[in-house]
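Researcher: We plan to redesign the surface later, but first we want a full-length starting point. Tokens attached.
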């Protein structure tokens, strides 16, 4: 009958709509966070840490959290929720420097699922692992990125000499402005010298200084080399010669 046909049509239409709604719900609930790692940037420059959702799904109505290393689920680098950036709990060292960036120039930003982190005026302390966490009402996913911060190599080693009462020369070597921690070595024209001590210090900007000394008891050309692992070191040499006055040692030239 006509009523039976109408009832069957309504029933089938209801089932079809339910399937469509279920499919749409499934698609919106499931997403994957992707990143491009590692990222390397020079100190003082701007870094983009690429992070995005698969299938270019919009992230405008999602919650986005960026954390650095051990701060996960603690103090965020960047927090986005309720369609706005929330700076109330942001880590102080990132204030005014962290925002959303674009993983590429043609990116559509949040509307296209691009939740990349932009860090301006990058410091040495910014180096490390970052975690990108994206959450919707029904789902959540995260991925990590490694950020490496490079800096200019340190300064040329500075040598100084002090004559001791026992007619030995105490040679001192110092160099600063290094990152990461450098290696220091002594040598003369024949062999490596064992230093009396090697001390490191780190300033507020994250750069290392190194200081060492060695005792020399005969005329020679002594060198102090400071450098990073697997890189060409910076070397300063000092020539020690006999003095015609009172048999003391002196150092007429530094090269």
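Model: Full-length starting sequence:
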């Amino acid at each position: 009958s006509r009523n039976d046909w109408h009832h069957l049509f309504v029933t089938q239409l209801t089932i079809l709509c339910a399937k469509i709604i279920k499919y749409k719900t499934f698609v919106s609930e499931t997403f994957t966070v992707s990143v491009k790692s590692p990222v390397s940037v020079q100190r003082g420059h701007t870094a983009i840490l690429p992070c995005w959702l698969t299938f270019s799904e919009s992230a405008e109505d999602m919650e986005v959290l960026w954390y650095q290393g051990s701060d996960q689920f603690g103090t965020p680098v960047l927090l986005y929720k309720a369609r706005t950036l929330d700076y109330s709990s942001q880590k102080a060292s990132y204030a005014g420097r962290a925002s959303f960036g674009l993983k590429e120039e043609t990116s559509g930003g949040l509307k296209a699922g691009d939740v990349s982190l932009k860090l301006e005026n990058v410091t040495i302390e910014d180096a490390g692992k970052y975690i990108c966490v994206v959450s919707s009402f029904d789902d959540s996913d995260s991925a990590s990125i490694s950020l490496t911060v490079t800096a200019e190599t340190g300064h040329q080693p500075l040598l100084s000499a002090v004559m001791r009462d026992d007619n030995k020369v105490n040679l001192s070597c110092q160099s600063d402005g290094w990152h990461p921690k450098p290696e220091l070595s002594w040598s003369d024209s024949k062999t490596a010298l064992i230093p009396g001590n090697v001390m490191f210090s780190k300033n507020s900007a994250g750069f290392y200084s190194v200081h060492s000394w060695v005792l020399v008891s005969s005329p020679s050309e002594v060198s102090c080399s400071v450098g990073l692992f697997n890189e060409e070191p910076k070397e300063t040499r000092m020539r020690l010669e006999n003095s015609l006055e009172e048999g003391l040692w002196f150092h007429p030239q530094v090269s």
